[in-house]
Design a protein that fits this description.
The protein is α/β, with parallel strands linked by helices and 159 residues long. It has helices at 19-26, 29-39, 60-69, 84-89, 129-139, and strands spanning 9-13, 43-48, 76-79, 93-94, 96-100, 106-110, 153-154. It is globular.
């Protein structure tokens, strides 16, 4: 992460087989948020911590193909098949979101929004916590809701 000091960083734990992740990618919600963040100069890292043989596991080529197929905008997709990064951050579900300030300080961790469902219709009425955290950093304000309970599918770490 030290290479990104001076940039806001968004970490998104993802699993393409999770219905909660599909809710956000199938509607274009995640891609729009990725694009907004990158347009504001942020680094967006999608992290896949599914272990080999577990739901959501992909190879590097499959991860790249998924990014193209979903028309996603991450800066990079990180394969964390040994779960070291996910466990270091305490990531528990997909999607699980983290926003790190330009100073390298964790300013938000938790759910993408306040609607813990897999129903795509809920996106329109949801409060997007990640967008709010990014807006606060741009304005130089403290993040109003710095922690929320993540929802979604459990991360499929190895044993």
């Amino acid at each position: 992460m030290s290479q990104f000091l001076g940039k806001t960083v968004v970490l998104e734990w993802t699993n393409h087989d999770c219905p909660y992740v599909r809710k956000h990618y199938g509607t274009g919600n995640m891609q729009a948020l990725q694009k907004e963040a990158k347009d504001q100069g942020a680094i967006w890292l999608s992290v896949i911590s599914s272990a080999p043989g577990r739901q959501g596991y992909v190879t590097g080529k499959q991860a790249n193909d998924l990014t193209i197929k979903r028309k996603a905008y991450p800066t990079a997709v990180l394969l964390d098949t040994n779960g070291i990064v996910g466990q270091a951050y305490g990531a528990t579900s997909t999607p699980n979101m983290f926003v790190i300030s330009k100073q390298g300080i964790l300013i938000y961790k938790g759910a993408i929004d306040n609607k813990p469902s897999a129903n795509p219709a809920d996106i329109k009425s949801a409060t997007n916590y990640v967008r709010a955290a990014l807006q606060s950093t741009i304005l130089g304000k403290l993040v109003e809701k710095a922690v929320s309970r993540p929802y979604g599918c459990s991360i499929k770490y190895g044993s």
